[in-house]
Here is the input.
Amino acid sequence: MEVLYPVCAGIDVHRDTLVVTVLRATGGRHAAETRTFGTVTAELRIMAAWLDEQEAPIVAMESTGVYWKPVYRALRTLGPGRTVWLVNPAHAKAVPGRKTDVKDSVWIAKLLMHGLLSPSFIPDVALLELRDLTRYRKKRVGEQASERNRVVKMLETSNIRLAAVLSDPLGKAGRAVVEMLIAGDKTPEQIADSTRGRPGRPVRASREDIARAVDGVVSETTRFLLRQMLAHIDQVQAAVDEIDARIGELLQPMREQCALLVGLPGVDSVSAAGLLAEIGPDMSVFPSANHLTSWGGLAPGSHESAGKRKAVSTRSGSHWLRVFLVQAAWGATRTKGSFWKRTFERWRARLGPQQALVAIARKMLVAIFHMLRDQVPYRELGADYVGTEPPSAGRTDSSIN
Here is the structure.
Protein backbone atom coordinates (compact mmCIF):
# COMPACT_ATOMS: atom_id res chain seq x y z
CA MET A 1 0.00 0.00 0.00
CA GLU A 2 1.05 3.55 -0.66
CA VAL A 3 2.31 5.44 2.37
CA LEU A 4 0.77 8.91 2.62
CA TYR A 5 2.08 9.84 6.08
CA PRO A 6 5.57 8.38 6.80
CA VAL A 7 5.28 9.37 10.47
CA CYS A 8 1.93 9.42 12.22
CA ALA A 9 0.29 8.52 15.52
CA GLY A 10 -2.81 6.65 16.61
CA ILE A 11 -4.48 7.06 20.00
CA ASP A 12 -6.79 4.57 21.69
CA VAL A 13 -8.88 6.73 24.04
CA HIS A 14 -10.28 5.54 27.37
CA ARG A 15 -11.63 7.28 30.42
CA ASP A 16 -8.45 7.00 32.51
CA THR A 17 -5.74 6.11 30.01
CA LEU A 18 -4.53 6.93 26.51
CA VAL A 19 -2.55 4.36 24.51
CA VAL A 20 -0.49 6.22 21.92
CA THR A 21 1.44 4.58 19.09
CA VAL A 22 3.84 6.45 16.80
CA LEU A 23 4.31 4.59 13.51
CA ARG A 24 7.25 5.17 11.13
CA ALA A 25 7.66 3.85 7.61
CA THR A 26 11.36 3.18 6.99
CA GLY A 27 12.77 1.05 4.20
CA GLY A 28 9.48 -0.61 3.43
CA ARG A 29 8.98 -1.65 7.05
CA HIS A 30 6.97 -0.18 9.91
CA ALA A 31 8.51 0.71 13.25
CA ALA A 32 6.08 1.30 16.09
CA GLU A 33 6.67 2.85 19.50
CA THR A 34 3.85 2.78 22.05
CA ARG A 35 3.39 4.61 25.34
CA THR A 36 0.52 4.91 27.80
CA PHE A 37 -0.51 8.20 29.38
CA GLY A 38 -3.12 9.32 31.87
CA THR A 39 -5.97 11.65 30.95
CA VAL A 40 -5.41 14.46 33.47
CA THR A 41 -4.15 17.76 32.07
CA ALA A 42 -0.57 17.24 33.26
CA GLU A 43 -0.42 13.87 31.47
CA LEU A 44 -1.86 15.42 28.31
CA ARG A 45 0.96 17.96 28.32
CA ILE A 46 3.52 15.16 28.65
CA MET A 47 1.88 13.28 25.77
CA ALA A 48 1.90 16.36 23.54
CA ALA A 49 5.60 16.95 24.32
CA TRP A 50 6.40 13.30 23.51
CA LEU A 51 4.60 13.57 20.15
CA ASP A 52 6.67 16.68 19.41
CA GLU A 53 9.83 14.73 20.19
CA GLN A 54 8.71 11.94 17.88
CA GLU A 55 8.00 14.54 15.16
CA ALA A 56 4.55 13.11 14.46
CA PRO A 57 2.76 15.82 12.44
CA ILE A 58 -0.61 14.04 12.24
CA VAL A 59 -2.57 12.18 14.91
CA ALA A 60 -5.80 10.17 14.68
CA MET A 61 -8.15 8.96 17.40
CA GLU A 62 -11.65 7.53 17.65
CA SER A 63 -14.60 9.49 18.99
CA THR A 64 -15.16 7.62 22.25
CA GLY A 65 -18.03 9.14 24.24
CA VAL A 66 -16.95 12.52 25.58
CA TYR A 67 -13.47 11.34 26.53
CA TRP A 68 -11.96 12.46 23.23
CA LYS A 69 -12.86 16.14 23.75
CA PRO A 70 -10.17 17.15 26.29
CA VAL A 71 -7.57 15.11 24.37
CA TYR A 72 -8.50 16.78 21.08
CA ARG A 73 -8.41 20.26 22.57
CA ALA A 74 -5.09 19.64 24.32
CA LEU A 75 -3.44 18.36 21.14
CA ARG A 76 -4.74 21.30 19.13
CA THR A 77 -3.73 23.85 21.79
CA LEU A 78 -0.33 22.40 22.70
CA GLY A 79 0.70 21.71 19.11
CA PRO A 80 -0.48 24.46 16.74
CA GLY A 81 1.29 22.86 13.77
CA ARG A 82 -0.08 19.39 14.44
CA THR A 83 -3.01 17.94 12.50
CA VAL A 84 -5.50 16.08 14.69
CA TRP A 85 -8.13 13.82 13.17
CA LEU A 86 -11.21 12.56 14.96
CA VAL A 87 -12.46 9.49 13.10
CA ASN A 88 -15.63 7.44 13.13
CA PRO A 89 -15.12 4.27 15.23
CA ALA A 90 -16.93 2.26 12.55
CA HIS A 91 -14.29 3.30 10.00
CA ALA A 92 -11.41 2.31 12.28
CA LYS A 93 -12.78 -1.03 13.43
CA ALA A 94 -10.01 -3.62 13.46
CA VAL A 95 -10.26 -6.96 11.71
CA PRO A 96 -11.50 -9.83 13.89
CA GLY A 97 -8.85 -11.34 16.11
CA ARG A 98 -7.16 -10.73 19.41
CA LYS A 99 -7.96 -7.27 20.69
CA THR A 100 -5.78 -5.17 22.97
CA ASP A 101 -5.49 -1.44 23.53
CA VAL A 102 -1.99 -1.46 22.00
CA LYS A 103 -3.21 -3.23 18.89
CA ASP A 104 -6.06 -0.74 18.58
CA SER A 105 -3.68 2.23 18.63
CA VAL A 106 -1.35 0.52 16.13
CA TRP A 107 -4.28 -0.27 13.84
CA ILE A 108 -5.49 3.34 13.89
CA ALA A 109 -1.96 4.52 13.07
CA LYS A 110 -1.67 2.03 10.18
CA LEU A 111 -4.97 3.10 8.66
CA LEU A 112 -3.94 6.72 8.96
CA MET A 113 -0.51 6.10 7.41
CA HIS A 114 -2.05 4.57 4.30
CA GLY A 115 -4.85 7.12 3.92
CA LEU A 116 -7.66 4.76 4.87
CA LEU A 117 -9.25 7.16 7.36
CA SER A 118 -11.11 10.40 6.88
CA PRO A 119 -11.53 13.09 9.53
CA SER A 120 -14.90 13.90 11.06
CA PHE A 121 -16.29 17.42 11.02
CA ILE A 122 -15.22 19.20 14.21
CA PRO A 123 -16.46 22.80 14.52
CA ASP A 124 -14.57 25.60 16.19
CA VAL A 125 -14.80 26.36 19.90
CA ALA A 126 -17.58 28.96 19.54
CA LEU A 127 -19.76 26.48 17.64
CA LEU A 128 -19.07 23.75 20.19
CA GLU A 129 -20.23 26.09 22.95
CA LEU A 130 -23.37 26.87 20.96
CA ARG A 131 -23.97 23.13 20.63
CA ASP A 132 -23.72 22.68 24.37
CA LEU A 133 -26.29 25.42 24.91
CA THR A 134 -28.84 24.27 22.30
CA ARG A 135 -28.61 20.64 23.42
CA TYR A 136 -28.92 21.57 27.08
CA ARG A 137 -31.90 23.80 26.25
CA LYS A 138 -33.57 20.87 24.53
CA LYS A 139 -33.09 18.77 27.65
CA ARG A 140 -34.51 21.45 29.94
CA VAL A 141 -37.55 21.97 27.70
CA GLY A 142 -38.14 18.22 27.78
CA GLU A 143 -37.87 18.34 31.56
CA GLN A 144 -40.47 21.10 31.63
CA ALA A 145 -42.80 19.12 29.36
CA SER A 146 -42.52 16.11 31.69
CA GLU A 147 -43.43 18.26 34.67
CA ARG A 148 -46.43 19.72 32.84
CA ASN A 149 -47.61 16.18 32.12
CA ARG A 150 -47.29 15.37 35.83
CA VAL A 151 -49.54 18.31 36.65
CA VAL A 152 -52.21 17.09 34.22
CA LYS A 153 -51.92 13.56 35.61
CA MET A 154 -52.22 14.83 39.18
CA LEU A 155 -55.36 16.77 38.22
CA GLU A 156 -56.84 13.68 36.57
CA THR A 157 -56.34 11.65 39.74
CA SER A 158 -58.40 14.31 41.55
CA ASN A 159 -61.08 14.03 38.83
CA ILE A 160 -60.24 17.46 37.45
CA ARG A 161 -60.79 17.09 33.67
CA LEU A 162 -59.03 20.27 32.64
CA ALA A 163 -57.54 18.76 29.47
CA ALA A 164 -61.05 18.00 28.23
CA VAL A 165 -62.18 21.63 28.17
CA LEU A 166 -58.94 23.55 27.50
CA SER A 167 -56.64 23.00 24.53
CA ASP A 168 -53.65 23.85 26.74
CA PRO A 169 -54.26 22.80 30.36
CA LEU A 170 -51.33 24.93 31.49
CA GLY A 171 -51.79 27.93 29.24
CA LYS A 172 -52.84 31.28 30.69
CA ALA A 173 -56.40 30.17 31.41
CA GLY A 174 -55.36 26.68 32.56
CA ARG A 175 -52.62 28.01 34.84
CA ALA A 176 -55.11 30.38 36.46
CA VAL A 177 -57.52 27.50 37.04
CA VAL A 178 -54.82 25.35 38.65
CA GLU A 179 -53.81 28.19 40.95
CA MET A 180 -57.46 28.68 42.00
CA LEU A 181 -57.74 24.95 42.68
CA ILE A 182 -54.62 25.13 44.84
CA ALA A 183 -56.02 28.08 46.77
CA GLY A 184 -59.33 26.23 47.24
CA ASP A 185 -61.34 29.40 47.87
CA LYS A 186 -63.61 29.30 44.79
CA THR A 187 -66.51 27.11 43.72
CA PRO A 188 -66.48 25.35 40.32
CA GLU A 189 -68.98 27.91 39.02
CA GLN A 190 -66.77 30.81 40.10
CA ILE A 191 -63.74 29.18 38.44
CA ALA A 192 -65.76 28.74 35.24
CA ASP A 193 -66.85 32.40 35.31
CA SER A 194 -63.24 33.57 35.69
CA THR A 195 -62.12 31.62 32.61
CA ARG A 196 -64.96 32.96 30.48
CA GLY A 197 -64.11 36.54 31.32
CA ARG A 198 -60.36 36.37 30.61
CA PRO A 199 -59.06 38.58 27.79
CA GLY A 200 -57.16 37.24 24.81
CA ARG A 201 -57.78 33.84 23.27
CA PRO A 202 -61.37 32.81 24.10
CA VAL A 203 -62.20 29.51 25.78
CA ARG A 204 -64.45 27.48 23.50
CA ALA A 205 -65.94 25.23 26.19
CA SER A 206 -69.18 26.36 27.77
CA ARG A 207 -69.45 27.63 31.34
CA GLU A 208 -71.33 24.49 32.37
CA ASP A 209 -68.72 22.16 30.86
CA ILE A 210 -65.88 23.97 32.62
CA ALA A 211 -67.72 23.90 35.94
CA ARG A 212 -68.29 20.16 35.65
CA ALA A 213 -64.67 19.56 34.59
CA VAL A 214 -63.16 21.35 37.61
CA ASP A 215 -65.57 19.84 40.12
CA GLY A 216 -63.25 17.33 41.78
CA VAL A 217 -61.74 16.42 45.13
CA VAL A 218 -58.38 18.13 45.72
CA SER A 219 -56.66 17.05 48.91
CA GLU A 220 -54.07 19.05 50.83
CA THR A 221 -51.31 16.74 49.64
CA THR A 222 -52.42 17.24 46.04
CA ARG A 223 -52.36 21.02 46.54
CA PHE A 224 -48.86 20.76 47.99
CA LEU A 225 -47.63 18.68 45.06
CA LEU A 226 -49.24 20.96 42.50
CA ARG A 227 -47.55 23.93 44.15
CA GLN A 228 -44.18 22.18 43.90
CA MET A 229 -44.74 21.25 40.28
CA LEU A 230 -45.73 24.76 39.23
CA ALA A 231 -42.69 26.16 41.02
CA HIS A 232 -40.48 23.67 39.17
CA ILE A 233 -42.01 24.65 35.84
CA ASP A 234 -41.36 28.32 36.56
CA GLN A 235 -37.81 27.56 37.65
CA VAL A 236 -37.08 25.66 34.45
CA GLN A 237 -38.66 28.42 32.37
CA ALA A 238 -36.40 31.00 34.02
CA ALA A 239 -33.38 28.82 33.20
CA VAL A 240 -34.54 28.43 29.59
CA ASP A 241 -34.89 32.22 29.28
CA GLU A 242 -31.30 32.67 30.49
CA ILE A 243 -30.08 30.01 28.06
CA ASP A 244 -31.93 31.74 25.22
CA ALA A 245 -30.20 35.01 26.06
CA ARG A 246 -26.79 33.33 25.95
CA ILE A 247 -27.65 31.56 22.68
CA GLY A 248 -28.65 34.93 21.21
CA GLU A 249 -25.23 36.33 22.08
CA LEU A 250 -23.38 33.46 20.39
CA LEU A 251 -25.63 33.69 17.34
CA GLN A 252 -24.73 37.32 16.62
CA PRO A 253 -21.96 36.42 14.10
CA MET A 254 -24.46 34.10 12.37
CA ARG A 255 -27.53 36.32 12.43
CA GLU A 256 -27.75 36.46 8.61
CA GLN A 257 -27.68 32.66 8.30
CA CYS A 258 -30.19 32.40 11.15
CA ALA A 259 -32.54 34.77 9.31
CA LEU A 260 -32.28 32.59 6.19
CA LEU A 261 -33.22 29.44 8.08
CA VAL A 262 -36.17 31.07 9.84
CA GLY A 263 -37.67 31.66 6.38
CA LEU A 264 -37.98 27.90 5.91
CA PRO A 265 -41.40 26.47 6.91
CA GLY A 266 -41.24 24.63 10.22
CA VAL A 267 -38.04 26.37 11.32
CA ASP A 268 -38.31 28.96 14.11
CA SER A 269 -35.53 30.80 15.90
CA VAL A 270 -34.98 27.89 18.31
CA SER A 271 -34.71 25.31 15.54
CA ALA A 272 -32.46 27.61 13.50
CA ALA A 273 -30.08 27.96 16.45
CA GLY A 274 -30.00 24.17 16.90
CA LEU A 275 -29.36 23.53 13.20
CA LEU A 276 -26.58 26.11 12.98
CA ALA A 277 -24.99 24.70 16.13
CA GLU A 278 -24.85 21.24 14.55
CA ILE A 279 -23.75 21.99 10.97
CA GLY A 280 -22.30 25.50 11.27
CA PRO A 281 -22.82 28.39 8.84
CA ASP A 282 -19.98 27.38 6.47
CA MET A 283 -21.05 24.70 3.99
CA SER A 284 -17.62 24.48 2.36
CA VAL A 285 -16.68 21.79 4.91
CA PHE A 286 -19.14 19.45 3.17
CA PRO A 287 -18.31 18.61 -0.47
CA SER A 288 -21.97 18.25 -1.40
CA ALA A 289 -25.48 18.08 -0.02
CA ASN A 290 -25.27 14.28 -0.12
CA HIS A 291 -22.22 14.36 2.15
CA LEU A 292 -24.13 16.54 4.61
CA THR A 293 -27.20 14.27 4.65
CA SER A 294 -24.94 11.25 5.12
CA TRP A 295 -23.14 12.93 8.02
CA GLY A 296 -26.51 13.81 9.52
CA GLY A 297 -27.72 10.21 9.42
CA LEU A 298 -30.50 10.96 6.94
CA ALA A 299 -29.03 9.36 3.82
CA PRO A 300 -30.71 6.14 2.65
CA GLY A 301 -28.73 3.04 3.46
CA SER A 302 -27.44 0.79 0.70
CA HIS A 303 -27.32 -2.99 0.60
CA GLU A 304 -27.21 -4.50 -2.88
CA SER A 305 -26.25 -8.05 -3.67
CA ALA A 306 -26.60 -9.99 -6.92
CA GLY A 307 -28.39 -7.03 -8.45
CA LYS A 308 -31.06 -6.96 -5.75
CA ARG A 309 -31.55 -4.12 -3.29
CA LYS A 310 -32.48 -5.06 0.23
CA ALA A 311 -34.35 -3.01 2.80
CA VAL A 312 -32.02 -1.20 5.20
CA SER A 313 -32.49 1.70 7.57
CA THR A 314 -30.87 5.10 7.26
CA ARG A 315 -27.21 5.36 8.12
CA SER A 316 -26.11 6.38 11.58
CA GLY A 317 -25.00 9.98 11.93
CA SER A 318 -25.42 13.10 14.03
CA HIS A 319 -28.19 12.29 16.50
CA TRP A 320 -28.83 15.90 17.48
CA LEU A 321 -29.01 17.18 13.92
CA ARG A 322 -31.60 14.53 13.19
CA VAL A 323 -33.60 15.57 16.28
CA PHE A 324 -33.74 19.23 15.24
CA LEU A 325 -34.48 18.39 11.60
CA VAL A 326 -37.30 15.95 12.29
CA GLN A 327 -38.86 18.51 14.62
CA ALA A 328 -38.64 21.14 11.87
CA ALA A 329 -39.97 18.67 9.30
CA TRP A 330 -42.99 17.95 11.48
CA GLY A 331 -43.77 21.66 11.62
CA ALA A 332 -43.27 22.06 7.86
CA THR A 333 -45.69 19.23 7.06
CA ARG A 334 -48.37 21.07 9.06
CA THR A 335 -47.95 24.34 7.15
CA LYS A 336 -51.08 24.75 5.02
CA GLY A 337 -50.59 25.28 1.31
CA SER A 338 -46.89 24.45 1.46
CA PHE A 339 -44.85 22.15 -0.75
CA TRP A 340 -43.81 20.19 2.34
CA LYS A 341 -47.36 19.41 3.46
CA ARG A 342 -48.40 18.18 0.03
CA THR A 343 -45.20 16.15 -0.44
CA PHE A 344 -45.58 14.52 2.96
CA GLU A 345 -49.15 13.51 2.16
CA ARG A 346 -48.06 11.88 -1.11
CA TRP A 347 -45.08 10.09 0.42
CA ARG A 348 -46.97 8.93 3.49
CA ALA A 349 -49.26 6.81 1.32
CA ARG A 350 -46.26 4.90 0.00
CA LEU A 351 -43.77 4.89 2.87
CA GLY A 352 -45.85 5.33 5.98
CA PRO A 353 -45.75 8.39 8.27
CA GLN A 354 -42.39 7.74 9.97
CA GLN A 355 -40.35 7.05 6.83
CA ALA A 356 -42.07 9.90 5.02
CA LEU A 357 -41.18 12.31 7.82
CA VAL A 358 -37.51 11.26 7.68
CA ALA A 359 -37.58 11.72 3.90
CA ILE A 360 -38.96 15.23 4.38
CA ALA A 361 -36.22 15.96 6.94
CA ARG A 362 -33.58 14.88 4.44
CA LYS A 363 -35.10 17.03 1.71
CA MET A 364 -35.15 20.01 4.09
CA LEU A 365 -31.47 19.45 4.91
CA VAL A 366 -30.63 19.55 1.21
CA ALA A 367 -32.52 22.85 0.93
CA ILE A 368 -30.68 24.20 3.98
CA PHE A 369 -27.33 23.24 2.43
CA HIS A 370 -28.04 25.24 -0.71
CA MET A 371 -29.51 28.18 1.20
CA LEU A 372 -26.42 28.51 3.41
CA ARG A 373 -23.91 27.76 0.67
CA ASP A 374 -25.37 30.22 -1.84
CA GLN A 375 -26.74 32.67 0.76
CA VAL A 376 -30.19 32.68 -0.85
CA PRO A 377 -33.58 32.80 0.91
CA TYR A 378 -36.08 29.98 0.78
CA ARG A 379 -38.48 30.05 -2.16
CA GLU A 380 -41.81 28.33 -1.61
CA LEU A 381 -42.69 25.97 -4.47
CA GLY A 382 -46.34 25.61 -3.51
CA ALA A 383 -48.59 22.63 -2.96
CA ASP A 384 -49.01 21.98 -6.71
CA TYR A 385 -45.30 21.46 -7.35
CA VAL A 386 -44.35 17.84 -8.04
CA GLY A 387 -40.71 17.05 -7.21
CA THR A 388 -38.74 13.83 -7.18
CA GLU A 389 -40.31 10.78 -5.65
CA PRO A 390 -38.86 8.98 -2.62
CA PRO A 391 -37.80 5.34 -2.84
CA SER A 392 -40.50 2.77 -2.34
CA ALA A 393 -40.72 1.12 1.05
CA GLY A 394 -37.90 -1.37 1.34
CA ARG A 395 -35.76 0.30 -1.34
CA THR A 396 -32.81 2.63 -1.05
CA ASP A 397 -31.96 5.25 -3.62
CA SER A 398 -29.19 7.70 -2.91
CA SER A 399 -30.18 9.87 -5.88
CA ILE A 400 -33.17 11.37 -4.08
CA ASN A 401 -32.80 15.15 -3.89
Remarks:
- The mean pLDDT is 87.
- The chain is about 50% helix and 10% strand.
- Residues 254-374 form one domain.
